[in-house]
Design brief:
single chain; alpha/beta; five-stranded mixed beta sheet; 14 helices; 10 strands; 19% strand; globular
Length: 326
C-alpha cells in the first residue's frame, strides 16, 4: 500500500540545506533553507541538528505538528554504506516521520532529471563545490563512486578548480610554471598586485578562506579569453566529468542505448561555453547514445519526487509538484 498524507523532502549539501513539505497528490505545503550539512566536521548528531529548525518551519507553515508519513533525505557526505546507515539511524530517531530513507545527495539530482514514468535509469554528475557521480540501471542496479576527495581518486569541483588556479598562478609568477593571465587576474580580483600578496593574505587569513570560491568564475573568465593554462584546467574538468559518466553508464550496461546523463551543480549549471562544449563533445565520443542535459531546478525537487514514488502517486501529482518549482 502506498504512503498517504504528507512527506518531508530534504536535500542537504555542503553549503546549503533545503527542506520541503509535500502531499501525495503533489502539492507543496512549505519550504525552508538553512546552512550546510557537514557531519565529517561537526559529527552526525550536530549535523542533523541543523535540519531540526527547518523541519519545524515547514510543518508550521502547514499548521502541522508531525510526524509525517515519510521522509526522503538526500544528504552530502553520505558517501559510504556505513555513513548512510549512521545518518539513517540518526534521522529516523528524530521522530519526524513514520518511515525515513537516506541516500547521497547526488541521487536527488538524478531523480530530478529523470522521467516520472517507467523504470528509473540514467546517470547524474554533480559538479558544484565538489564532484560526484551516481547511476541507476535495470532492476535497481546502482553505480557509485566513494567521492571522498583525492584519496578516492576525485578530480574537480569548484573548490578543486580554485586550488588549481592558485597553483598555476603562483608557479607562473615565480617562474616554475607557464605564464598565465591567472597570475594577474586572481590577485587583482581582491585589490592586490601580485600572487605573493594573495598567497600571504590567504595563509595569514587576512582574506577569509571562504572567499576562495570567488576564484572559480575567474578561472573560467581567463579561460574564455584564450589563456592556454586556464583553458587546460577547464578542459581537464570536462574530461573528468565525461569519464565519470562514461564509466557509470558502462557499469550499468547502458552504453549501447539512449540514456539520460543529468548534469548539475553550480559549475555545470553556469553553462560556461568552453566547459559545456568540451563536455558535450567528449560525451558524444565516449557514450554516443547518451542524452546529456543540465538540470537547474533545486535538487530538493528530486527528494520531493522520491516521496511521490514511494507513495505510488498518480501521474498528475508529478506535474503539479514540478510546476511548484517552475
Amino acid at each position: 500500500m502506498g504512503l498517504t498524507g504528507t512527506a518531508l523532502a530534504i536535500d542537504a549539501g555542503n553549503s546549503k540545506t533545503d527542506v520541503a513539505l509535500v502531499t501525495a497528490d503533489g502539492r507543496l505545503l512549505g519550504t525552508a533553507r538553512g546552512g550546510g550539512f557537514q557531519p565529517p566536521v561537526v559529527g552526525v548528531g550536530r549535523a542533523v541538528d541543523v535540519l531540526a529548525p527547518l523541519v519545524r518551519s515547514v510543518l508550521d507553515q502547514a499548521g502541522l505538528t508531525g510526524p509525517v508519513e515519510h521522509l526522503s533525505a538526500f544528504l552530502a557526505n553520505a558517501d559510504l554504506p556505513v555513513e548512510e546507515a549512521g545518518l539513517t539511524a540518526e534521522v529516523a530517531g528524530r521522530g519526524w516521520a513514520r518511515t525515513a530513507s537516506v541516500r547521497n545527495d547526488t541521487f536527488a539530482l538524478l531523480r530530478a532529471g529523470l522521467p516520472d514514468d517507467g523504470e528509473p535509469m540514467g546517470v547524474a554528475v554533480v559538479c558544484g563545490a565538489g564532484i560526484n557521480c551516481v547511476g541507476l540501471g535495470r532492476r535497481g542496479a546502482t553505480a557509485r563512486f566513494p567521492s571522498i576527495g583525492r584519496i578516492s581518486g576525485d578530480w574537480g569541483g569548484g573548490s578543486h578548480l580554485a586550488d588549481e588556479a592558485l597553483w598555476c598562478a603562483a608557479r607562473a609568477e615565480d617562474g616554475r610554471g607557464e605564464p598565465t593571465g591567472l597570475a594577474r587576474a586572481l590577485p587583482a580580483h581582491f585589490g592586490l598586485t601580485t600572487m605573493l600578496e594573495l598567497i600571504e593574505a590567504l595563509h595569514l587569513r587576512t582574506l577569509p578562506g571562504h572567499r576562495r570560491h570567488e576564484l572559480t568564475p575567474l578561472l573560467f573568465a581567463v579561460a574564455a579569453s584564450g589563456d592556454p593554462v586556464a583553458r587546460g584546467i577547464v578542459v581537464r574538468q570536462a574530461e573528468e566529468i565525461a569519464l565519470l559518466a562514461g564509466i557509470a553508464l558502462e557499469r550499468l550496461g547502458l552504453l549501447g542505448e539512449p540514456a539520460p546523463v543529468v548534469l548539475g551543480g553550480g559549475v555545470l549549471a553556469a553553462r560556461h561555453p568552453l566547459l559545456h562544449e568540451q563536455l558535450t563533445q567528449l560525451l558524444s565520443e565516449r557514450a554516443p547514445k547518451a542524452v546529456p542535459h543540465v538540470v537547474t531546478a533545486p535538487p530538493v525537487l528530486g527528494a520531493a519526487l522520491d516521496t511521490l514514488d514511494r507513495a505510488g502517486a498518480e501521474a498528475g501529482a508529478y506535474g503539479r509538484l514540478r510546476g511548484a518549482w517552475g
